[in-house]
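Service request form, structural biology core

Requester: graduate student, group of Dr. S.
Request type: structure prediction, single chain
Budget code: on file
Notes: please return the result as structure tokens.

Sequence provided:
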Amino acid sequence: MNKFAFVDCSTVDEALGQLSEGAVVKAGGIDLLDLMKDGIVSPPKLVNIRNVSSLRGITAGADGLQGVQQVLELEGGFTVDRS
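Core staff response, request fulfilled:
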């Protein structure tokens, strides 16, 4: 496995500030680490969002599903159409 930086974030803004070219958002699970161990992916940085309390759970609101939208925006660098 290649060397990588691991950043533990506690807010969405902190996580967004850590995203850079090649950074990967990690929200739990071990699939990503398995891919890294097998040499399939080798991101230079993992941005851990597991401790971002505003991303815990999924709530339905007037703007749709909250939590899911924020994770998608962090991971893919895109916004969810809320119209």
